[in-house]
Amino acid sequence: MKQQEQEKRIKELEKENQVLKDFIDNPLHQTYDAFIEKQRIVNKISSMGPIQRLAEQGRIKFESGMVRDGTKDKPRFDLIWPDCIPFKEGMEYRLAVHMAKGAAHYSARNWEKADGQKELDRFRESARRHFTQWYYGEQDEDHASATFFNITGFEMVRSKISHFDQTMIDKDDLSKLDGE
Predict the structure, then answer these.
(1) Chain segment 125-173, per-residue pLDDT in tens
(2) Where are the domains of the chain?
(3) Which of 41, 126, 146, 152 places its Cα 20 to 30 Å from the Cα of 54?
(4) Those residues with Cβ within 8 angstroms of residue 19's Cβ, 6 or more apart along the chain or in another chain
């Protein structure tokens, strides 16, 4: 009986894998229905994997014998974007459109050149303005994606400044080196 269940499960997985392959090969895979179907397939396949938990080690053993660490206390990036929003209405797509416009107007990755307080202040100013425009419902541009972009830029510059501050050598330390 157990062998029959395993064979049935293998056939189900093969069928799901073929459906997923067909989906990937389909040039219209970005339509809303295809997106929902992909999510359904991915969720079903991922729920079939683990069959034995090695609780004392915080690990998961799969049918194939592969063992991986569990996901407890790890970030859940898979929960950031809602599954129910059509592809082109999702924040990731909208941000990518915003980035493409910026790359065409300035240059690709131009914003990553920012590394000082003036740029940090400019990102904060723009984020606040776009957030306010989004809050009050202005529709002249995608203010939500612009807010997201500017917060990302702000956090990038803040990280650069923080990293720079942590790696700076105190001037007194330099003078001690010169005196040796």
Answers:
(1) 999 999 999 999 999 999 999 999 999 999 999 999 998 776 654 544 5
(2) 2-68, 87-167
(3) 41
(4) 37, 41
Q: What is the mean pLDDT of the chain?
A: 80
Determine the Cα angle at 75 with ends 82 and 146, to 5°. Answer: 50
Instruction: Specify which residues 52 forms β-bridges with.
Output: 61
Query: For residue 62, what are its two tokens?
Result: 């799969």
> How many Å from the N-terminal Cα to the C-terminal Cα in the chain?
81
Cβ contacts of residue 35 below 8 Å, gap of 6+?
29, 86, 87
Q: In terms of C-beta distances under 8 Å and separation of at least 24 residues, what long-range contacts does 75-83 make, across chains too?
A: 83/36, 83/39
Q: With pLDDT > 70 as the criterion, what percentage of the chain qualifies?
A: 66
Average pLDDT over residues 84-110: 95
